[in-house]
Amino acid sequence: MKVLIVGANGQIGKHLVKDIQDHDSLKARALIRKEEQASYFHDLGAETAIVDLEGEVDNIVEAAKGVDALVFTAGSGPHTGPDKTMMIDLDGAIKTMKAAEQAGVKRYVMISSFDTRREAIQSASESFAPYVVAKHYADEWLRGTNLNHTIIHPGKLTNDDGTGHVEAAAEVERGEVPRQDVARVILETLVHDSTIGKEFQVVSGQQSITDAVTSL
Protein backbone atom coordinates (compact mmCIF):
# COMPACT_ATOMS: atom_id res chain seq x y z
CA MET A 1 0.00 0.00 0.00
CA LYS A 2 1.34 3.41 -0.97
CA VAL A 3 0.31 6.24 1.35
CA LEU A 4 0.28 9.98 0.65
CA ILE A 5 1.00 11.89 3.86
CA VAL A 6 -0.32 15.45 3.73
CA GLY A 7 1.62 17.57 6.18
CA ALA A 8 4.54 15.17 6.10
CA ASN A 9 7.01 17.79 7.31
CA GLY A 10 5.10 18.22 10.56
CA GLN A 11 6.11 16.35 13.69
CA ILE A 12 3.50 13.60 13.41
CA GLY A 13 4.09 13.42 9.66
CA LYS A 14 7.83 12.82 10.02
CA HIS A 15 7.27 10.02 12.54
CA LEU A 16 4.63 8.50 10.26
CA VAL A 17 6.77 8.52 7.13
CA LYS A 18 9.58 6.79 9.00
CA ASP A 19 7.20 4.18 10.45
CA ILE A 20 5.68 3.52 7.02
CA GLN A 21 9.09 3.14 5.40
CA ASP A 22 10.03 0.65 8.11
CA HIS A 23 6.88 -1.42 7.44
CA ASP A 24 7.08 -4.40 5.10
CA SER A 25 3.88 -3.70 3.17
CA LEU A 26 3.68 0.11 3.15
CA LYS A 27 5.43 2.86 1.22
CA ALA A 28 5.22 6.61 1.77
CA ARG A 29 4.87 9.59 -0.51
CA ALA A 30 5.45 12.78 1.48
CA LEU A 31 3.50 15.86 0.45
CA ILE A 32 5.59 18.92 1.34
CA ARG A 33 5.58 22.64 0.55
CA LYS A 34 9.24 23.29 -0.20
CA GLU A 35 12.02 21.53 -2.08
CA GLU A 36 14.43 22.07 0.82
CA GLN A 37 12.23 19.84 3.00
CA ALA A 38 12.70 16.86 0.67
CA SER A 39 16.11 15.55 1.80
CA TYR A 40 14.80 14.13 5.08
CA PHE A 41 12.29 11.98 3.21
CA HIS A 42 14.65 10.98 0.42
CA ASP A 43 17.07 9.72 3.07
CA LEU A 44 14.28 7.43 4.28
CA GLY A 45 13.66 6.19 0.75
CA ALA A 46 10.28 7.90 0.53
CA GLU A 47 8.85 9.66 -2.51
CA THR A 48 8.01 13.36 -2.28
CA ALA A 49 5.50 15.67 -3.93
CA ILE A 50 5.78 19.44 -3.59
CA VAL A 51 2.32 21.00 -3.27
CA ASP A 52 0.95 24.09 -1.53
CA LEU A 53 -2.40 23.31 0.12
CA GLU A 54 -3.50 26.85 -0.61
CA GLY A 55 -3.14 26.13 -4.33
CA GLU A 56 -5.39 24.31 -6.76
CA VAL A 57 -7.05 20.93 -6.19
CA ASP A 58 -5.54 19.70 -9.45
CA ASN A 59 -2.06 19.92 -7.94
CA ILE A 60 -3.12 17.65 -5.09
CA VAL A 61 -4.78 15.28 -7.57
CA GLU A 62 -1.45 14.88 -9.38
CA ALA A 63 0.32 14.14 -6.10
CA ALA A 64 -2.33 11.57 -5.18
CA LYS A 65 -2.18 9.57 -8.42
CA GLY A 66 -1.02 6.01 -7.87
CA VAL A 67 -1.46 5.95 -4.10
CA ASP A 68 -3.85 3.74 -2.17
CA ALA A 69 -4.45 5.88 0.90
CA LEU A 70 -4.20 9.50 2.02
CA VAL A 71 -3.48 10.69 5.56
CA PHE A 72 -4.20 14.31 6.49
CA THR A 73 -1.83 15.46 9.25
CA ALA A 74 -1.41 19.06 8.10
CA GLY A 75 -2.14 22.06 10.27
CA SER A 76 -1.67 25.79 10.17
CA GLY A 77 0.14 25.69 13.51
CA PRO A 78 -0.42 27.52 16.80
CA HIS A 79 1.31 30.75 15.76
CA THR A 80 -0.89 31.65 12.80
CA GLY A 81 -4.16 33.56 12.74
CA PRO A 82 -7.71 32.37 12.04
CA ASP A 83 -7.21 33.11 8.34
CA LYS A 84 -4.51 30.45 7.95
CA THR A 85 -6.54 28.05 10.09
CA MET A 86 -9.42 28.31 7.64
CA MET A 87 -7.13 28.01 4.62
CA ILE A 88 -5.26 24.89 5.81
CA ASP A 89 -7.32 23.07 8.41
CA LEU A 90 -10.64 23.55 6.60
CA ASP A 91 -10.19 24.46 2.94
CA GLY A 92 -6.94 22.54 2.55
CA ALA A 93 -8.46 19.46 4.16
CA ILE A 94 -11.53 19.53 1.94
CA LYS A 95 -9.40 19.95 -1.16
CA THR A 96 -7.48 16.80 -0.26
CA MET A 97 -10.77 14.91 0.04
CA LYS A 98 -11.85 16.14 -3.38
CA ALA A 99 -8.42 15.26 -4.76
CA ALA A 100 -8.61 11.75 -3.29
CA GLU A 101 -11.98 11.20 -4.94
CA GLN A 102 -10.75 12.51 -8.29
CA ALA A 103 -7.56 10.43 -8.15
CA GLY A 104 -9.44 7.25 -7.22
CA VAL A 105 -7.94 7.01 -3.73
CA LYS A 106 -10.54 5.32 -1.54
CA ARG A 107 -8.82 5.20 1.86
CA TYR A 108 -8.60 8.43 3.87
CA VAL A 109 -7.42 8.99 7.44
CA MET A 110 -8.04 12.35 9.11
CA ILE A 111 -6.08 13.57 12.12
CA SER A 112 -8.58 15.84 13.79
CA SER A 113 -8.81 17.67 17.10
CA PHE A 114 -9.67 15.85 20.34
CA ASP A 115 -13.30 17.01 20.32
CA THR A 116 -14.92 18.65 17.30
CA ARG A 117 -18.54 18.42 18.39
CA ARG A 118 -20.71 21.55 18.45
CA GLU A 119 -20.39 21.70 22.25
CA ALA A 120 -16.61 21.86 21.93
CA ILE A 121 -16.88 24.94 19.71
CA GLN A 122 -19.08 26.71 22.24
CA SER A 123 -16.75 25.92 25.14
CA ALA A 124 -13.47 26.72 23.34
CA SER A 125 -11.47 29.83 24.11
CA GLU A 126 -11.71 32.75 21.69
CA SER A 127 -8.29 31.96 20.24
CA PHE A 128 -8.91 28.21 19.90
CA ALA A 129 -12.49 28.32 18.61
CA PRO A 130 -11.59 28.96 14.92
CA TYR A 131 -9.45 25.80 14.92
CA VAL A 132 -12.27 23.71 16.40
CA VAL A 133 -14.70 25.19 13.87
CA ALA A 134 -12.36 24.31 11.01
CA LYS A 135 -11.93 20.76 12.25
CA HIS A 136 -15.66 20.38 12.93
CA TYR A 137 -16.62 21.19 9.35
CA ALA A 138 -13.72 19.27 7.81
CA ASP A 139 -14.84 16.19 9.74
CA GLU A 140 -18.44 16.78 8.67
CA TRP A 141 -17.41 17.03 5.03
CA LEU A 142 -15.40 13.82 5.27
CA ARG A 143 -18.35 11.92 6.75
CA GLY A 144 -20.41 12.96 3.72
CA THR A 145 -17.95 11.62 1.15
CA ASN A 146 -17.76 8.13 -0.32
CA LEU A 147 -14.20 7.72 0.98
CA ASN A 148 -13.33 4.78 3.24
CA HIS A 149 -12.49 7.14 6.06
CA THR A 150 -11.30 7.03 9.64
CA ILE A 151 -11.20 10.09 11.90
CA ILE A 152 -8.65 10.09 14.73
CA HIS A 153 -9.08 12.56 17.61
CA PRO A 154 -5.79 12.71 19.56
CA GLY A 155 -5.45 14.26 23.00
CA LYS A 156 -2.99 17.01 23.86
CA LEU A 157 0.09 16.33 21.75
CA THR A 158 3.53 16.09 23.34
CA ASN A 159 7.05 15.51 22.07
CA ASP A 160 7.73 12.82 24.67
CA ASP A 161 9.06 9.49 23.45
CA GLY A 162 6.25 7.15 22.50
CA THR A 163 5.37 4.38 24.93
CA GLY A 164 3.59 2.12 22.43
CA HIS A 165 0.55 2.08 24.72
CA VAL A 166 -2.65 4.12 24.42
CA GLU A 167 -6.31 4.27 25.31
CA ALA A 168 -8.59 4.53 22.28
CA ALA A 169 -12.38 4.61 22.15
CA ALA A 170 -15.26 6.66 20.80
CA GLU A 171 -14.88 8.78 23.92
CA VAL A 172 -12.09 8.83 26.51
CA GLU A 173 -11.08 11.21 29.28
CA ARG A 174 -8.92 14.11 28.15
CA GLY A 175 -5.22 13.48 28.40
CA GLU A 176 -1.90 13.73 26.63
CA VAL A 177 -0.40 11.54 23.94
CA PRO A 178 3.06 11.63 22.32
CA ARG A 179 3.11 12.48 18.64
CA GLN A 180 5.22 9.38 18.07
CA ASP A 181 2.39 7.21 19.42
CA VAL A 182 -0.17 9.03 17.27
CA ALA A 183 1.91 8.15 14.21
CA ARG A 184 1.88 4.51 15.26
CA VAL A 185 -1.89 4.66 15.73
CA ILE A 186 -2.22 5.99 12.18
CA LEU A 187 -0.10 3.15 10.83
CA GLU A 188 -2.20 0.52 12.61
CA THR A 189 -5.34 2.24 11.34
CA LEU A 190 -4.07 1.97 7.77
CA VAL A 191 -3.35 -1.76 7.98
CA HIS A 192 -6.62 -2.71 9.72
CA ASP A 193 -9.68 -2.27 7.52
CA SER A 194 -11.85 -2.75 10.61
CA THR A 195 -11.25 0.95 11.33
CA ILE A 196 -13.01 2.09 8.14
CA GLY A 197 -16.03 4.23 8.95
CA LYS A 198 -14.97 4.76 12.55
CA GLU A 199 -13.74 7.71 14.56
CA PHE A 200 -12.14 7.63 17.97
CA GLN A 201 -10.30 9.62 20.59
CA VAL A 202 -6.84 8.51 21.68
CA VAL A 203 -4.65 9.36 24.69
CA SER A 204 -1.82 7.61 26.48
CA GLY A 205 -2.93 4.44 28.23
CA GLN A 206 -2.12 0.86 29.13
CA GLN A 207 -3.16 -1.05 26.00
CA SER A 208 -0.73 -1.78 23.19
CA ILE A 209 -1.41 0.33 20.13
CA THR A 210 -2.16 -2.71 17.97
CA ASP A 211 -4.65 -4.09 20.49
CA ALA A 212 -6.24 -0.68 21.05
CA VAL A 213 -6.84 -0.14 17.34
CA THR A 214 -8.03 -3.64 16.54
CA SER A 215 -10.49 -3.62 19.45
CA LEU A 216 -12.30 -0.47 18.30
UniProtKB/TrEMBL annotation:
Domain named NAD(P)-binding: residues: 7-192
Pfam family for this entry, one: NAD_binding_10
InterPro entries to which the protein is assigned, alphabetical: NAD(P)-bd_dom, NAD(P)-bd_dom_sf
Name of this chain's protein: SDR family oxidoreductase
